[in-house]
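Forum > Structural Biology > Help requests

Title: Can anyone predict the 3D structure of Tryptophan synthase beta chain?

Hi all, first post here. I have the sequence for Tryptophan synthase beta chain but no way to get a structure on my laptop. I'd be grateful if someone could post the structure tokens.
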Amino acid sequence: MKREDLLHGGAHKTNQVLGQALLAKRMGKHEIIAETGAGQHGVATALACALLGLKCRVYMGAKDVERQSPNVFRMRLMGATVIPVHSGSATLKDACNEALRDWSASYETAHYLLGTAAGPHPFPTIVREFQRIIGEETKNQILAREGRLPDAVIACVGGGSNAIGMFADFIEEESVRLIGIEPAGKGIHTHQHGAPLKHGKTGIFFGMKAPLMQDEHGQVEESYSVSAGLDFPSVGPQHAYLNAIGRAEYESITDDEALDAFQALARNEGIIPALESSHALAHAIKMAYAEPDKEQLLVVNLSGRGDKDIFTVHKLLEDKGAL
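Reply #1:
Sure, ran it for you. Structure tokens for Tryptophan synthase beta chain below:
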């Protein structure tokens, strides 16, 4: 596992937030606007703003405010203003819309610190370059430890920042499979999922052309995932390209499979992963079980820790009678 959960702030988000916050200061901006789903990007943004003396306001879907209350408290504790968004599905896509709306009216003094590798240019490129340290460290560490490159690197995909950070340094290494995991939610057949790469259609959303969950009239459909950070109806254009050329593979994992992986890691390793990361972990477990006699060197990006998810998981397991 690539332990991005050990990063200050609890997730991979801190990598690129520090870079963008320093960029904002260089540009003479005094305020930071951000959106967040699981709250990890919001926490990372709040800590960077506290460190650098910048005002911070974070837009967050009202549903996510409720299911990620520990991170909401962390943001406010570090001085950020958290603004719940009640419009639409009250999740990440609506928070993105409100953040963009705010920025369009305040760009002279504010920088929009986008949290994922999506949105209008140059944001996907900025985020990838600040996150590619994940793949660089992985490559150096695996070569030092195993003496060879991994057979596959696996990461969850919502907007796609942790995955593109992991993939970037391996794209030219054709022997390494790049596997991104989208949320299948309650099952692809139920239409309650967040897997636009494999089950969406090309559309325009959030200032980009990318796969999008939409109905026959081109209206954006609501996405769904037990993990707030993957509850997004589109995906970054770089992932769309890697999928189109066949360089990366994209699979999906259901809520139940992610919950099983969440518990398995906690019980076997004493590590509580984020629900987002649990999707990638679940697929790695499936790969290992599918070919038990095959020696495979797999690296899973453990993109964040699961402290924020313990109340959600507790309720889900309690409802299932699994506690």
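The longest strand covers residues 177-185. Residues 10-128 form a domain with the Rossmann fold fold (CATH 3.40.50.1100).
Shout if anything looks off.
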